[in-house]
Write a structure and sequence with these properties.
- It is a single chain.
- By secondary structure, this protein is α+β, with helices and mostly antiparallel strands.
- It folds into 2 domains: about 100 residues, Aspartate Aminotransferase, domain 2; about 100 residues, Aspartate Aminotransferase, domain 1.
- The protein is built from 7 helices and 7 strands.
- Strands 4-5-7-6 form a 4-stranded antiparallel sheet, with helices on one face. The protein has a 3-stranded mixed sheet with strand order 1-2-3, with no helix packed on it.
- Strand 4 and strand 5 form a beta hairpin.
- Helix 4 packs across helix 6 and helix 5 packs across helix 6.
- The longest helix has 27 residues.
- The relative contact order is 0.13.
C-alpha cells in the first residue's frame, strides 16, 4: 500500500515510488499495488500511484470503493499489466463477475461528479474523526502511548508502552464489547506486540468515547503491562 497505508497511515513519497518500480523492473520482480485507501488522501494531496511509473507491465494495480464509498457494493478494479490474462482467468473461477447494477451505480457516480463531491465531504469528516480519537487517546491512555498522524484514511496506529501486550488488551476489550486489531496481526514475524489499530470511521458519540476510555483503562491494567 503506497498511499495511506493500513495500519500506519503513511504514504510513500512520489520519488520513492519511482525508484521502487525501477528497482523491481531491473530484477523482473512483479509488484502488487493495493491503492484501496488512495482516494482517502487529504483533500488536494492525491498523488500518482506507483503504477504510473510502470513501463514493463510488472505492476498490478488494485483499488476499489470499499473504503471510500460503501463496502457492500463489492466493486473494485485491477490494472494487471502483463498479467491480465492470468488475472481474468482467476477472476472467472473465483467469483465469475461483479453484479452489473453495482458497477453501473459506481460508474454513474464517477461520471457525473458525485463521487468527487462525496470524497470532499468524506475527507473533512474523517479528518475530524481522526482528531477526536487522537485527543481521546491522549486523555485516557497510559503515559508513553504514541499515536500516528496518518496522511489520509481513517485508521490510527497506536503504540502502547513497550512492556504492553496488545493481544491481551484485545481479549480483555472484547469481553467488554470493544473491538480492536492487535499489532502482531500486521507482521509476519510477530512484531508490534505493543501496537494496536483503531478504526476511526465510526461516528463519534458518547458510546464511542466510553469505548476509548475503556481501552485506556484496560491498557493500563496489570494484565496488559505484565509481560
Amino acid at each position: 500500500m503506497t498511499a495511506n497505508s493500513n495500519p500506519s497511515g503513511a504514504s510513500m513519497p512520489l520519488e520513492h515510488k519511482r525508484r521502487l518500480v525501477e528497482m523491481l523492473a531491473e530484477r523482473g520482480i512483479p509488484l502488487v499495488e493495493d491503492d484501496e485507501f488512495g482516494d482517502l488522501a487529504e483533500a488536494g494531496r492525491r498523488v500518482p500511484a506507483a503504477k504510473a511509473f510502470d513501463r514493463q507491465g510488472l505492476v498490478s494495480y488494485c483499488a476499489s470503493v470499499s473504503k471510500s464509498l460503501a463496502p457492500g457494493l463489492r466493486v473494485g478494479w485491477c490494472v494487471p499489466g502483463r498479467f491480465q490474462d492470468e488475472v481474468m482467468f482467476m477472476k472467472s473461477f473465483s467469483s465469475v463477475s461483479t453484479p452489473a447494477l453495482c458497477q453501473m451505480a459506481v460508474t454513474e457516480m464517477m461520471a457525473d461528479g458525485s463521487y468527487d463531491r462525496h470524497l470532499r465531504q468524506v475527507h473533512i469528516r474523517y479528518a475530524a474523526q481522526v482528531q477526536r480519537f487522537s485527543a481521546a487517546i491522549a486523555r485516557h491512555f497510559p503515559r508513553g502511548t504514541t499515536v500516528s498522524r496518518p496522511s489520509g484514511g481513517y485508521v490510527l496506529w497506536v503504540g502502547l508502552p513497550e512492556e504492553s501486550d496488545a493481544a491481551v488488551l484485545y481479549r480483555l476489550a472484547l469481553r467488554e464489547g470493544v473491538g480492536i486489531m492487535p499489532g502482531h496481526l500486521f507482521s509476519a514475524s510477530g512484531r508490534y506486540r505493543n501496537y494496536l489499530r483503531l478504526n476511526c470511521a465510526v461516528p463519534w458519540s458518547e458510546r464511542v468515547e466510553h469505548a476509548v476510555m475503556t481501552l485506556g483503562r484496560l491498557a493500563a491494567s496489570a494484565e496488559v503491562v505484565s509481560r
